[in-house]
Each structure stands twice: as structure tokens, then as C-alpha cells.
UniProtKB/TrEMBL annotation:
KW Transferase (keyword) present: yes
Gene Ontology MF term list: transferase activity
UniProt GO cellular component terms: cytosol
CDD domains recorded: GATase1_1
InterPro entries: ChyE-like, Class_I_gatase-like, GATASE
Name of this protein: Glutamine amidotransferase
Classification via Pfam families: GATase
Residue span, Glutamine amidotransferase domain: 43-192
Length: 243
């Protein structure tokens, strides 16, 4: 089969490696079936979408809705490159799954209002599927309610009219949406398990997601949460679009 493409932008090697291996594990992929590009490290090379089964955008410490003058040169470059690539992906309705940062990229590209109104701290939340979500093939086999890990400063406040809301939560009304037939974004992390969340809490304790002194408490709380359902989305994405 053609490989899937993972576009990553975590500068911290431990976080980047943990994320990559999570996508391999829960997507049921081998290293040869998931081509990763670390966008924060260098300009995006020329890509031919015909070389891939689908595109995945992982999480990121970048916050799309930050004031332009506060963004780093690397963030400005990554945003420009992703926007240009999304022009092509959306036009072709090419299989796309954006996790967390995918909301800030696909959402903004499609006219969503993204701000800090519905930010969530690091931890588990209850996700509820909409009627459209229950019927969507990417959510096949998912229960109406499930627990997923989140941790984000920004979120969708207003979806564009042409987007289909697939899931929400009490603290963040837009947890997953679809554009056209094959373009998806989740606010929660479908790749993230307890070990992965603990790793990120440790790495990002000074990144503004939570008070640094609360890191150990958050890690202990994460260990008490059972998260098993969101990973089904990754397996469904791979099974549906592998070509």
C-alpha cells in the first residue's frame, strides 16, 4: 500500500518520537507505512499527494490564534506551508486527519472562528458523538460517549456552515468535525494514551498549558483515567483509506 504521511511540528525530540510511535501503534502501521516530516525543522519539501494514502497532522505547541507578532519565524513558515498544502487537499477531498492542531489548521482554512474561549487543560474528558458522528464511517464501532485526552489553548468557537459537527463535550462544543467527505479534524487526541499524556505533561510543563507546579498532580490524575476508544479512529482511518 502507499504510505500515510504524518506532518509533525514538535521541536522536542522525546515528544516527537512518542507521538510518531503512537500513530504507528494505534494505526496498525509499520515504519515503512508512515512517512513522517518534522515541519518545525525545515521547509516542507515538494509533495505529490498521489504518493500517499492519506495525510495526518499531529499535535503542536503552536497556537494558530496567537497574535501574528508573537509567533516565531518557524510557526509562520509552518502555517504558510500547511495552508498551501490544504488548498490542494481540500480541492481534491484527499483523506486528511488533523489531531488537535488539525482543528487550528483545517478549521482556519475553512473559515472557522478559532480562539481561546473553549481551551481545555491536560486530562481526560467525556466526548459525545452527534447523530452525524454516529453515522460517520470514521467513527464506526465507537460508542456514543467515550473518554479521550485533551490539552489545548484554543478551539473552534464557530464552525463554518458547510462543516459537519461529529462530536463535542461539555467544556468544548466542537471536538470533531468533517469537511466534504474525507477531511477530518479532532480537538481531542486519538493517538494519546496514559503513557503519552504523562510524557507530554512532563515535557510541556513550562509551555503555558498549566501551572508548572501542578505537573506531578496532573501526571498522577492521568494514571487514573481509562482511555481506550479514541484509537479506533486511527485504525478506521487507515483501513478506510489505505491504497
Amino acid at each position: 500500500m502507499k504510505p500515510f504521511l504524518l506532518l509533525a511540528s514538535r521541536a522536542e525530540d522525546d515528544a516527537a518520537e512518542d507521538e510518531y510511535h503512537s500513530y504507528l501503534r494505534y494505526g496498525g502501521l509499520t515504519a515503512g507505512q508512515l512517512h513522517r516530516i518534522r515541519m518545525e525543522a525545515a521547509p516542507l519539501p515538494e509533495l505529490d499527494l498521489d504518493d500517499y494514502s492519506g495525510v495526518i497532522v499531529g499535535g503542536s505547541p503552536f497556537t494558530s490564534s496567537d497574535p501574528e507578532e508573537e509567533k516565531s519565524a518557524a510557526q509562520h513558515r509552518v502555517e504558510r506551508e500547511l495552508a498551501a498544502l490544504l488548498d490542494r487537499i481540500v480541492a481534491a477531498d484527499f483523506p486528511f486527519l488533523g489531531a488537535c492542531y488539525g482543528v487550528g489548521t483545517l478549521g482556519l482554512h475553512q473559515g472557522a472562528v478559532i480562539d481561546r474561549t473553549f481551551g481545555e487543560g491536560l486530562g481526560g474528558v467525556t466526548i459525545r458523538l452527534t447523530d452525524e458522528g454516529l453515522a460517520d464511517p470514521l467513527l464506526k464501532g465507537m460508542p456514543e460517549h467515550f473518554t479521550a485526552f485533551v490539552g489545548h489553548k484554543e478551539a473552534v468557537r464557530v464552525l463554518p456552515a458547510h462543516a459537519v459537527l461529529l462530536a463535542g463535550s461539555l467544556s468544548c462544543p466542537v471536538q470533531m468535525f468533517r469537511i466534504r467527505n474525507n477531511l477530518y479534524a479532532t480537538q481531542f487526541h486519538p493517538e494519546l494514551d496514559v503513557g503519552g499524556l504523562i510524557t507530554r505533561i512532563d515535557i510541556y510543563r513550562h509551555a503555558g498549558y498549566f501551572p508548572p507546579e501542578s505537573a506531578e498532580e496532573l501526571m498522577a490524575a492521568a494514571g487514573l483515567v481509562i482511555v481506550t476508544e479514541p484509537m479506533t479512529i486511527l485504525r478506521n482511518f487507515v483501513e478506510r483509506y489505505a491504497s
